[in-house]
Amino acid sequence: MIKIDMAWKMAALLFVYSWNSVAFGQADASNQVTTAEIATSAQAFLNTLDEAKRSKVIYKFSDDEQRKRWSNFPVGAFPRGGISMGELSQEQRSTAMEVLKAVLSEGGYQKVLQIVEADEVLKNNQGGGRGGPGGRGGRGGGPGFGRDNYFISFLGKPSATEPWMMQFGGHHLAINITFVGENGTLAPSHTAAQPAVYQIEGKTIKPLGKEVEKAEALMASLNAEQRTKAVLGYQVRNLVLGPGRDGQMIEPEGLKADQLSEKQRAMLIDLATEWTGIANELVAAAKLEEMKKGISETWFAWSGSTEKGSPAYFRIHGPTVFIEFAPQGQGESALNHIHTIYRDPTNEYGAKWWRK
């Protein structure tokens, strides 16, 4: 188990040192991994498993119960389907990580590793007890937390042509990526972190740091009239359409992007790519073009202080994108415990490509 843990730590460290080279907004269509290559990587992982383990990983593509079995809670409070990293050998876990690398961008893979590592820090720093969900006022830690408690599952057989889905998640993480031929979507997915700031080998890690930086920069760019429209007249303390809210939507609020300058619209799109760009270039490039086409009908809303470094909720709501960012109160800096959600109001789980 020590070797497995070190493999995770070294992977996280590798991306710590390469972070500044990652740019989510620059999804390059010439650098796309094909769905055939992704399916091959997924099958290579399945080939490392015996029948008992393989049967835990694979579900029917039609299994809507498993499709929706994801949450911000730790596995002790919300059991996942699939197989956990703790049940895999070092070789099997490494092969599973290769699948994750294939379906995610370089920056997306780094973000996922850092979220998982944050949960390991939470487990080690606060361990013991019942291992509660670590919500408002809770301490978290203990059983159900840490890198061994992240699960992988496939809905359908990995294929270059037929619909299939990969899920990877645990506490504060739900990667749900669906492929139908060359089409793919990461919606809905959940990223979060606690602690949202921690140290590895003397390096400060902020899994969701870019989201904060880019949102603050966008707010700082707004003039008084724009800011008045962006800031909601009421306080939002948590995700409105978080886990368990599939199929729901709200009316757009805040500042409409047709009232932004060209530079500000680019900043808004760049902020959104911190979520859409988690997916590999195949998926991210297509979504980027969708967002650009729908930018004039996209809204930006803010709730909370506009002072830099202050915890605040924000939302991006466009024709094909819905993103929320919600700091959580923990008797500590609220920015040290963050929940976020990414949805596509028109295409949750890629349904427009496969649902009859």
Topology:
Blueprint: H1 2-18, H2 35-47, H3 51-57, E1 58-59, H4 64-67, E2 83-84, H5 90-103, H6 106-126, E3 151-155, E4 164-170, E5 173-180, E6 183-185, E7 189-193, E8 198-200, E9 203-205, H7 209-221, H8 224-230, E10 255-256, H9 262-276, H10 281-293, E11 299-304, E12 312-317, E13 322-327, E14 338-343, H11 351-354
Parallel strand pairs: 1-3
Antiparallel strand pairs: 2-3, 3-4, 4-5, 5-6, 5-7, 7-14, 8-9, 10-11, 11-12, 12-13, 13-14
The overall average pLDDT, rounded, is 89
**Low-confidence segments:** 14-26, 128-141
Tell me about the largest β-sheet. 12 strands, mixed
Query: How much helical structure, as a percent, in the residues?
Result: 25-40%
Total helical segments: 11
Distance between the termini: 45 Å
What is the gyration radius calculated from CA atoms? 19 Å
How many domains? The number is 2
Backbone structural class: alpha+beta
Shape type: globular
> What is the subunit arrangement here?
single chain
Written as H for each helix and E for each strand, in order along the chain, the element string is: HHHEHEHHEEEEEEEHHEHHEEEEH
Percent of sequence in beta strands: 15-25%
**Would you count the extended β strands for me?**
14
